[in-house]
Amino acid sequence: MVKERLQKVIAHAGVASRRAAEGLILAGKVKVNGQVVTELGTKVDGNDEVMVNGEPVEQEQHEYYLLDKPRGVISSAHDDKGRKTVVDILKNEGVQTRVYPVGRLDYDTTGLLVMTNDGELANRLMHPRFEVDKVYIAKVKGLVSNDEMRLLREGVKIDGKKSQPARTKLLEANQRQKTSVVKLTIHEGHYHQVKKMMEAVGHPVLKLHRESYGPLTLAGLNPGQFRKLKVDEVRALRKLY
């Protein structure tokens, strides 16, 4: 069973904010399995009894969802401009657990997004060290040449740094519309990663869709639909790291 930091467990249970939870721990107000704990690095799991000011804390169970994110939705829990978020989609269908997106897809980007309250899994999946494959389908301006595809496979310079090599495949070249459809497999997840890579070879992105994430695909889902991950799918994600 995965262990999480004590202050995070307290915060997720809605008892106090993360910072306030740290204050409660340092003040000796928190017990784990009947013992006062004052170390902020303490970790607990679902088998541990946590009490704050003598009241038991109900630990939040981990949940995992797969969402086909539609265009025009924010990959965030909240939006200052009042726009619809991916969290709103789940809440509107009765999901009460506070889950968050693993990484982000741009406002105008569609496709596969994992949603969970398992912070450890989320952080590890997003870390480039674990090289989790993400497959994107990009419709771009212009006709992409073989030389430009080779540059993408070698890595291109974006934001002053060279990107990791991508696996690429040209799916379509529309001579009349002067557009191309390219499949890219990457494991980095920097801000606007695919858009910047395509711009670096002279082909701005018109549409972008994430087709898969590690072993997960969108089979059976339409835009705006979601489902719980199966136990074996969660296990497969954990095997990635």
Automatic annotation (TrEMBL):
GO biological process: enzyme-directed rRNA pseudouridine synthesis
Residues covered by the RNA-binding S4 domain: 4-62
Matches recorded under SUPFAM superfamilies: Alpha-L RNA-binding motif (SSF55174), Pseudouridine synthase (SSF55120)
Highest taxon above the source species: Bacteria
UniProt keyword annotation of RNA-binding present: yes
GO molecular function ontology, one term from the record: RNA binding
Enzyme class at the top of the EC tree: isomerase
Cellular component terms per the entry's GO annotation: cytosol
Keywords, alphabetical: Isomerase, RNA-binding
EC number, as in UniProt: 5.4.99.-
SMART domains in the record: S4 (SM00363)
InterPro entries with a match to the protein in the record: PsdUridine_s_RsuA/RluB/E/F_cat, PsdUridine_synth_cat_dom_sf, PsdUridine_synth_RsuA/RluA, PsdUridine_synth_RsuA/RluB/E/F, PsdUridine_synth_RsuA/RluB_CS, RsuA_PseudoU_synthase, S4_RNA-bd, S4_RNA-bd_sf
UniProt name for this protein: Pseudouridine synthase
Organism expressing this protein natively: Limosilactobacillus fermentum (strain NBRC 3956 / LMG 18251)
